[in-house]
Amino acid sequence: MNSDASAAHGAGTAPVEPDRASRLRRLRLLLLHPEITVLAAILLLGIYLGATNPYFLEKTNLFNIAAAVSVIGTAGAFATYVVIIGGLDLTPVTVFVMAGIVVLKTLNAGWPLAAVIVTAILAGGMIGSINGILIARFERNAVIVTLGVNFLFTGVAFVITNGNGQLVTRASFLNLWASSVAGFPLTAAAMIATFVVAFVVLRYSRLGVYIYAIGGDAAAARLNGINIVRVRFIVYVLAGLAAGLAGVLSVGISGSVAPFGALSQTDLLYIIAAIIIGGTSLTGGRGNVWGTLFGIVLFGVVANGLVLKNISSYYQPVIIGAVMLVAVLIERFREGLAVQH
Predict the structure, then answer these.
(1) More confident position, 22 or 112
(2) Is 7's pLDDT higher than 50?
(3) Residue 73 above 70 pLDDT?
(4) What is the pTM of this model?
(5) How confident is the model at residue 13 (pLDDT cuts 50, 70, 90)?
(6) Residue 3 covered by a domain
(7) Distance of CA 170 to CAs 120, 174, 206, Å?
(8) Residue 153 phi/psi, 5° resolution?
(9) Number of independent structural domains in the chain
(10) Is 11 among the domain residues?
(11) Has residue 2 been placed in a domain?
């Protein structure tokens, strides 16, 4: 009887353990791949906004969201590399402004559009190379270096422009960035292309392998023959080039260059927040660019939703800050799971 009862009891409880194990596996998946959670949040928020406001799901509105986040998104793609490698870059917004000044000066000088765009992007790469030399070659602290470079070029921007905002008047340049590809804004298409390139390099190139290796354990990477100085330098240059392109997009969208924009670091905070929310570890060695893209898109959807709901935009940093704090807490649990995994 006891044996039969035990067997019956066991038969009755057996299904519970697999269910629990399945739930734990799903939780582990979400924590180890936070980009899935962010994508789910975007979809749920989109469903809610679409159900409560008929304008949200219109193609024009969705394209407007994509265009609105194209500047910080373009910079964020390769800024993710910097964090994965264990560094930090505080110069993207200043690069936006400096690239914009290059655009303004070269347009006024009558340069061809292609030369204007390439030169502005290279100017961003030049600032990135300064970061890379000081951080990689001279092994200086990334926060201090990029903060110093940030202040330096903010001052340069004010000196060049005499502290005045200036309008871009060349119609061909403005029309280029106001155009679309199959109805999709060109600025947003440039952002997507940047993320595709960043993904391919990180996922399929030797450089990508080195980036993860250095971010995970720089000492071990050095012992395995990886040239840490070169890789770190390349990463900061790539981040500068991407920020330079973002600066070009910024001028194309706004039609102006404002040196005092370098004093506002809101865009920088959104870039860093998107990288963190997307699952890139601040300690390095783990992360992916798609998580950053999803984080950027989430910000765009939140901002658009606040407008559609007639809620003050002042609530946006409150929401983003709360999401960041949750992401930081989740990161703590994810580190433990990563070790077990």
Answers:
(1) 112
(2) no
(3) yes
(4) 0.89
(5) very low
(6) no
(7) 16, 7, 42
(8) -80, -20
(9) 1
(10) no
(11) no
Q: The domain containing residue 52 runs over which residues? A: 36-340
Q: Does residue 9 fall inside a structural domain?
A: no
Q: What percent of the chain has pLDDT over 90?
A: 73
Residue 227 is part of a domain; what is its CATH number? 1.10.3470
Token pair recorded at residue 231:
């890789």
HEC-encoded secondary structure of the chain? CHHHHHHHHHHHHCCHHHHHHHHHHHHHHHHHCHHHHHHHHHHHHHHHHHHHCCCCCCHHHHHHHHHHCHHHHHHHHHHHHHHHCCCCCCCHHHHHHHHHHHHHHHHHCCCCHHHHHHHHHHHHHHHHHHHHHHHHHCCCCHHHHHHHHHHHHHHHHHHHHCCCCEECCCHHHHHHHHCEECCEEHHHHHHHHHHHHHHHHHHHCHHHHHHHHHHHCHHHHHHCCCCHHHHHHHHHHHHHHHHHHHHHHHHHHHCEECHHHHHCCHHHHHHHHHHHHCCCCCCCCCCCHHHHHHHHHHHHHHHHHHHHCCCCCCHHHHHHHHHHHHHHHHHHHHHHHHHHC
